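To: structure subgroup
Subject: Chain for Friday's discussion

All,

I'm putting the inputs and outputs inline so they're searchable in the archive.
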Amino acid sequence: MADVTHERIDAMPKATRARLGNGEEGGREVRGELRGLRGDRRTQQLRLTAVHTDIGDLHDADGAIDSRLARTERRPGTVDVPVT
């Protein structure tokens, strides 16, 4: 039978605690990375919303320019007269 000493018995809980400690630290790292990914997703969503808003604003500005141009073209003397 293998020699069982107090040193070996005492070393087992220490090794187990060390392994559990490493696992807990790894778990903390994974949780931190997941929080970062969630934060990135929220940030990306906010950026995407901002882009959609900007595109809508550009469409509105384009429509306003088109309507101003149409009004300007309807004014007398501003429309080119075709040369015959």
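Points worth raising on Friday:
The two ends are 118 Å apart (CA to CA).
DSSP finds one helix and no strands in the chain.

D.
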